[in-house]
Design a protein that fits this description.
66% of the residues lie in helices and 4% in strands. By secondary structure, the protein is mainly alpha-helical. The chain folds into 2 domains: 31 residues, no CATH class; 114 residues, no CATH class. The chain has a two-stranded antiparallel ribbon. Helix 3 runs antiparallel to helix 4. It starts with 15 loop residues before the first strand and ends with a helix. 20% of the residues are buried.
């Protein structure tokens, strides 16, 4: 059973440092990583993360609906059709270990920005493709980009 929360909503001992230097004292100051963040930055960041989550879910969920029209429009080899769905997951899974290591080495803002840029480039490539292999390359880039943003 969890300890009861105080009037601020904190539990005793949850990242609190007392003014006297002891941990868990009644007169404690909550330390939060968001304390140094400007309120407008936090308010801007939340909708951006929401849009990214929607893009991820839309991409994964909608690909099943677009496989048949892509095949009919491009008339390519039927053996490439499953790669439209698999390319995203393959690119996603392939870079997760690498990106997870990079998050400890570099600034998360830049990693997130690069990942979102890769996603946008991949979506543009897939959307403007004239052949099935180009669609697959774009899907791999979208998977790499979104895996990068999800690790930050």
């Amino acid at each position: 059973m969890a300890a009861p929360r105080n009037e601020k909503g904190d539990r005793p001992g949850d990242d609190t440092v007392a003014e006297s230097g002891t941990i868990g004292s009644a007169t404690s100051v909550t330390v939060s990583p968001r304390d140094s963040l400007a309120p407008w930055k936090f308010k801007l960041m939340m909708p951006l993360l929401f849009v990214q989550g929607l893009a991820y879910g839309y991409d994964v969920g909608n690909v099943a609906n677009i496989q048949a029209p892509i095949y009919l429009a491009m008339g390519s080899d039927i053996q490439l059709l499953p790669w439209i769905g698999l390319a995203f997951s393959t690119g996603n899974v392939a870079v997760i270990p690498l990106v997870r290591k990079l998050t400890g080495l570099f600034d998360l803002r830049w990693i997130y920005a690069i990942g979102f840029l890769l996603f946008a480039i991949g979506a543009a490539i897939s959307g403007s493709a004239n052949t099935m292999p180009v669609v697959i390359v774009g899907r791999v880039l979208t998977g790499v980009g979104l895996a990068t943003t999800y690790q930050t």
